[in-house]
Amino acid sequence: MEPLISVVIPSYNYEAYIGHAIETVAAQSYRNLELIVIDDCSQDRSFEKVNKLAGNELLRERFSGRVTVRKNRHNLGAHATINEGIAAANGEYFAILNADDLFEVNRFSALMEEMRRKGAMWGFSRVRCIGPDGGPLNTEQARLFERIQDKLSGKRFAALAAVAENVGISTGNLLFSRRLFDGIGGFKNYKYVHDYDFFLRACLYDEPVFTAETSYLYRLHGENSFLSLHGEGIRENRVVWLEFYRAVQKGEIANRTILQNPAYVQEFYEAVSAEGEKKRALWKLARNPLIRAGLKLFKAKYRMD
């Protein structure tokens, strides 16, 4: 029997989109699924809409009754809502779907087949941008966004492509095992980069598969969190880079693909250096004990773990 995949949808103020998101989960060619929707105190009618959908007999039958809908008592943020959904899940594998995004029908079939073939604990796919109406988006912004994943080409392992940007793009583009989640811990308290931080930690734990046989449909609509990235998001990125670079320098790596080359630290340094002087400076700062001490205090102040 196919392993159970629990799909967690963190929902916040996407009444216009969440119904379509749920439909694309139900339409999956992979059959053994569980659906969990956690509403993070939406101010629109998202929760009421999801509850109505969850009461549909055909939808419940599609998921063999494994449909859970909850609402947080207080707004917790995306990272905590995702962790809550996973804590409630029964699956051997987990997928996140942002409430405004969509899956292609073959998503889990394609990813699970590739993960089985390579013995990987997790994987992700190509991303294609869609507009507010759900149709393909062919704007310059969309093309630039999709090209981020071009960095994966020719890299010996995925982490080399991710030293400066999140080539996974979104939490919604990840499919990962319970073993991986337990091994690296949950999503950390970052408002803007919890997805990037999780991706980097996962890269050091196990080598992912990447497939273009299916796409994650990422909706650009003017309200995406990355579009509102400001000082807080920039600070979070620097924290994540410093921690990631230091983990590499200390050899905190379980990924056997990375470890195949004893000179992997040099590989990382060259990849970081190729991103420019600012990233190379951060790499050097990660070695500085005073910077690390200050970083620890900074994270404690803003409760980033």
TrEMBL record:
<feature type="domain" description="Glycosyltransferase 2-like">
    <location>
        <begin position="6"/>
        <end position="146"/>
    </location>
</feature>
<dbReference type="InterPro" id="IPR001173">
    <property type="entry name" value="Glyco_trans_2-like"/>
</dbReference>
<dbReference type="GO" id="GO:0016758">
    <property type="term" value="F:hexosyltransferase activity"/>
</dbReference>
<protein>
    <submittedName>
        <fullName>Glycosyltransferase, group 2 family protein</fullName>
    </submittedName>
</protein>
<dbReference type="Pfam" id="PF00535">
    <property type="entry name" value="Glycos_transf_2"/>
</dbReference>
<keyword id="KW-0808">Transferase</keyword>
<dbReference type="InterPro" id="IPR029044">
    <property type="entry name" value="Nucleotide-diphossugar_trans"/>
</dbReference>
